[in-house]
Request: fold
Amino acid sequence: MKQIYLTASLLFLGASVFAQGNIKLMPLSGKVCNPMEITLDIKGSSFNPVSYLWSTGETTSTITIGTSGTYTLTVTGHHGNSPVWTTYTKTRTYNVLPVPQINALTNVWVCKGDTVRLQATAGYDTIIWNNGFIGSVFERQMNGVGTPGVPALDTVNVSYTAVVTGVCSAESDGVVLRGIRKPNGVGAFYNGRMNLSTTDSIPAGLVLEYMAPVAYEMRFEEIGNPGNIIKYTTAPGTRKVSASILEQGKSYTVTTSPVINNVTYCPGAPSTIGLASGLRLSHGFNENEEGMKTFRVYDLNGRLLLEKQAEQFDGKWLENFTPQTLIVHKTGITTEVSKIQIIR
Reply:
């Protein structure tokens, strides 16, 4: 914390008519900064100080105080070349103001477009903020306005100078204000699609840049049953979540929020997605036959699409196939041929 002191130095202006009232403790104001120097001021006399003793026990000509109270200086010296030493006692009461600090009336990190309000420490005559604003309460709307096409982080460092008029000034520590930008929706490719499968990865709403990799909280609210809400938080820097956390055959409203320093901010624009129903396969295989079998899947044009060896046919093999009718050959102890219709 920096201080600027507006104090008078010791003046020795030569011999003149001396009056005890010419010796004063400075500053004269009872209200001072924290910390603050107080010193002895001698005007218009030939008095030469030789020793000092403060009520704090210090023996220097100047002391620094940080606590309100009454301070006394006993100074001993002589006039001109006089061999007679004289002792004077000077007392003054000081109200030491609190160290300037910033009191946040709102969060200092807010959603883009919201307003941050800060308050200065009371008691000083004038508060001058580092952007030139004068007043005890500072307000700023975090608009994030920057160069077109360039990400605007809208990060501002704010501090202020507190002034006791004609006496001193002290500067507060700074505080960082930030406007958190809201993520976009899941993107045009995903928004509105109702035929996603559990193998798809759904992107979080993206922003161009934050100051560091952030996590995203994705909130899926079932459209047909608003009380059914699924939340998922990605790892920092990860922007996708597997659709396998959702239920097939249901549609959801998706909103995404950045998570910074374990605090969730500013949900972005909502998007709508839906998952296709699970596969329903119509076939006529003899499922009682034991042993390993070979399954070959053909389309209606006779092209081989898939070949698997297994004891039973598994519908998950066809999850990524579009709705259609397929021909399946099962070869084991016996050979069977069946039509399978993929329905979603």
